[in-house]
Specification:
Layout: E1 2-13, E2 26-31, H1 37-45, E3 63-72, E4 75-83, H2 94-110, E5 114-122, H3 129-140, E6 145-150, H4 157-166, E7 171-172
Length: about 180
């Protein structure tokens, strides 16, 4: 059984040059603004307020790094979770948004220690062009990607069942209801 034994905030970085050294495996969480990236990190590590979340789109403005230790068959393993700024809408200037996008793209391309991208999609708005484009972009990089649909508690049961039938490789979660 896997059990998180220790998790800590390491640092925030505005760009790749300010990132911690690439000295361990990293898992990057990304998706549109307000999709639940920070809440998903909190759920994964079973800590309520480790990653700061907000109802305001664009709250996460920096790349946030969290060191995680977990036990697997009594052996400690170390990795890093990376909370990336939201893609798309945010209440910031166009210039600041362009700068974020440039830094995010550079980070995705250059950070070789990222072994998995967890791409979050709001289950209520699953066919948005931006999600399709970003997911296809990640696929073009030949990196490991896990597609996760969030906010499933907001769907009707029939809609959720249809989504599950069409997305056999994806995961489905509700951070509010602690499902998935």
């Amino acid at each position: 059984m896997v059990k998180v034994s220790k998790v800590s905030f390491l640092k925030s970085a505005s760009k790749i040059s300010n990132s911690p050294p690439p000295d361990r495996v990293e898992i990057a969480i990304l998706g549109r603004s307000n999709v639940g990236k920070s809440s998903t990190i909190n759920s994964l590590v079973e800590r309520k307020n480790l990653a700061k979340s907000s109802n305001t789109p664009g709250k996460t403005k920096l790349i946030n790094f969290f060191d995680v230790v977990f036990k697997l068959d009594e052996v400690e393993k170390h990795f890093r979770l990376v909370d990336l700024p939201g893609i798309g809408y945010a209440k910031v200037s166009k210039e600041q948004k362009r700068e974020w996008d440039k830094n995010l793209n550079r980070f995705i391309l250059e950070r070789e220690t990222i072994s998995l991208f967890i791409y979050l999609i709001d289950a209520r708005h699953r066919d948005l062009e931006i999600d399709i484009q970003v997911f296809e972009y990640l696929q073009s990089l030949n990196r490991n990607i896990l597609k996760v649909y969030t906010k499933i508690d907001k769907l009707k049961k029939n809609d959720l069942n249809n989504l599950r039938r069409g997305e056999k490789e994806a995961l489905f979660i509700s951070n509010t209801k602690k499902k998935g």
